[in-house]
Structures are given as C-alpha cells and as structure tokens.
Amino acid sequence: MEAGFSEIRNELKSRDALWRRIQQECQQLHTEFLKIREYKDMQENKIKHQSSCVQLNEQLENKTTELLLLAQSQEHQGEVLNKIRNYVYQEEQSHCSEQERMKTEISDLIEELHQKEITIATIMEKASLLERQLKMELEIKDKLLAKQQLLDFRYKVIRSENTHLKEMV
Questions:
Q1: Pure H helices in the chain
Q2: Please, are residues 92 and 26 in contact by the beta-carbon 8 Å criterion?
Q3: Read out DSSP for 118-149?
Q4: Residues in the chain with pLDDT < 70?
Q5: Based on C-alpha coordinates, what's the Rg of the chain?
Q6: What is the pTM (predicted TM-score) of this model?
Q7: Contact assessment for residue 63 and residue 32, using Cβ atoms and an 8 Å cutoff
Q8: CA 49 to chain centre
Q9: According to the lineage, what is the superkingdom (predicted)?
Q10: 73 exposed, middle or buried (CB, 10 Å; 0-12, 13-18, 19+)?
C-alpha cells in the first residue's frame, strides 16, 4: 500500500513540476506578448505600413491563442492535480482509520489477554491452596488411619488377652 502512495506522490511531484514549467512558459509568453505589444506600438508610431501591422497583429493573435491554449492546459493540469491530491488524501485518511481500528482491536485483545492471565493466576492460586488443603487433609487422614490401625491392633491384642484370660478363668 505504501508503494502505491509512493507512486502517487511521485506522480504528484511530476505533475507539480510540469505545472510549474507551464506557469513559467505562460509567464515567458506573457512577457513576450508584452514585448510584442510594445514592439507593435513602436512600429505603429514609426512606420505606418499596413503589412507590418498585419504581421504583428498575426503574431500577437498567434501568441494570444498560444497563451490561451497554455492557460487551458494549465487549468486542466490543475484539475488533474487536485483530483490526485484528493485521492491521496482520501487514501491516507482511510489508511489512518484502518490503523486506528487495528490499534484499538489490538488494545482490546491485549486487555482481554490480561484479564485471562489474571483469571489463570487466580485459578492457579486457588488450585495451589486446594492442593495444600488436600495434602493437609491426607496427612490428617494418614495419621488418623495410623491411629485407627494402632487402635485396631491394640483392640486385637486386648481381645486376644481377654480371650486368653477367659480361657484361663
């Protein structure tokens, strides 16, 4: 997309340079026009020849026509240049809008990811706490089981002694 903008900018610069050249040529033609007009005025004052005046008038008309054509061309080039500038501006605005939308979307995704990381961290803390509680409960149950087994063993010993004592009595 940047290459397209670069091409359009180069085209704008090229057309801008052409525009300046046309303006310079118009200025030169205008200067020539003024010189020819002065020359014509001088010739009319000095020489009253019909052919000279006709020739100068023709030159003046030719230069005037040429100047008008250049002015029309310059106007057309200006319109084209404005269209290109508007197009580049619209494309840049579109590109900027797209970038802003993407930045917003990325920011939203980062925020969502952050929230999920917080949730995962909370779950991990709870899991760690539950794991510790479970280990403590298992230790307690193991101790209780050991006590139970010891009590069972004592019970059996006492029962066995009781049976033995009963037999003896």
A1: 2-46, 50-168
A2: no
A3: HHHHHHHHHHHHHHHHHHHHHHHHHHHHHHHH
A4: 1, 43-54, 56
A5: 51
A6: 0.41
A7: yes
A8: 72
A9: Eukaryota
A10: middle
